[in-house]
Amino acid sequence: MTQTRPPVETIPAPQPAPAATPPAAGQPYEYRRAPLVEPDWTRFPGWRHVTRDQWESAQWQRVNCVKNLKQLRTVLGDLVDETFYADLDADQTALATMSMLVPPQMLNTMVPFAPMTTEAFLADPVRRYMIPVASDRRTDWPSHPYASRDSLHEHDMWVAEGLTHRYPTKVLAELLSTCPQYCGHCTRMDLVGNSTPAVDKLKLTLKPVDRYDAHITYLRAHPGVRDVVVSGGDVANVPWRNLESYLMRLLDIETVRDIRLATKALMGLPQHWLQPDVVEGLERVARTAARRGVNLAIHTHVNHAQSLTPLVARATQTALDVGVRDVRNQGVLMRGVNDTTPDLLDLCFALQGEAGILPYYFYMCDMIPNAEHWRVPVWHAQQLQHDIMGYLPGYATPRIVCDVPFVGKRWVHMLTEYDRERGISYWTKNYRTSIESADLEALNKRYAYYDPIDTLPEAGRRWWQTHHDD
Predict the structure, then answer these.
(1) Distances, alpha carbon 226 to alpha carbons 145, 251, 407, in Å
(2) Which of the four pLDDT bands, split at 50, 70 and 90, describes residue 2?
(3) Which of 136, 271, 322, 385 is a Cys-bridge partner for 400, taking CB atoms 3.0 to 4.6 Å apart?
(4) Can you list the domains of the chain with their CATH numbers?
């Protein structure tokens, strides 16, 4: 009889323990697409019954701009407490270099998707530069000792009223001194906007028609100028008929090959750029520019991704559809607003990928009075330029620039010497401005730029205290 042997259990030979898999290090920045959303304006008590037709009306937006504390209180109601309003009043009364002017479109992008509280409003990056309060500003060094009202000396370089000739082949044409919105950090705070208790503004004195005639006369007489930045103020505040006439006159000058329209209102008041008469007029200008081989572009000014909404994207696409060659962004690098790598990359991806706007420049905030709380040191800007490289398409990777007085825009790595302790960087240039035609040494000089003093090491702060007292 055959016996069946019980099965033998096979015991596997011991194996060495697998090496532990190291955790994924990840990337310093992780991209996540964020489609644009128009925040719900009816969350504000003062706009609870505003319809979409009203919201998308440029006239309604202009009429309902927030110009003072009382109007802001009407919109916000008791969403923020009295301490905020007192803080704002203290700033407006003694410190602000720009009067308050905030379109509903811009206010609606502050604390867009979270409960509105005093703390959230104070921390909001768009609020920090559009509605500054006294507690934002520094008390140790509110202004740098070398800060000035016209820090870039644009007025000194006027060759006609409102026409700055700084670079050899380019001019800046300031057509007017108003905007649809006033930014607290405005580099032209000596001219743009209403006077404030802190700043008695300069005034344009010529009638607009005479000012524009002077610009055209100068450009016809100087064929070496090929590039005109048409600005102000903001060109969105020029009546369209007048702006179109000015642009067509520029297009009649054979030597003008680039025209750039500077308008923050593309973001702050996109409703303006969607008005039928503006769209139709822009198409006429764009077709004429294309026929004559002139590059027509719009330059706007967006500092934070929150500011980009579907209305901004629609206004941008409309401009491109009617023939504007490019829409580009020139932001300003500011502490507490956009001075981190995620801030800048989130903004650039929203600009380029969602709104159709090319990230172009980020300027270091200029050395104007009461702006030290916004400014960053050169080394910080250099680090940011390093850290954003490799994420964006090359053509959409912005350059971070320092606009050095008497020099102009320089990439932040172009300095020739840098005293980190005292925060003094030195820069050179390769052209003469319009006020240096007789200066044989202009190209051999080094020009200084200054970091915010509160960002310096202790020894540097002590040096500046002594230097300032002397």
Answers:
(1) 37, 11, 19
(2) very low
(3) 385
(4) 41-136 (no CATH), 155-465 (3.20.20.70)
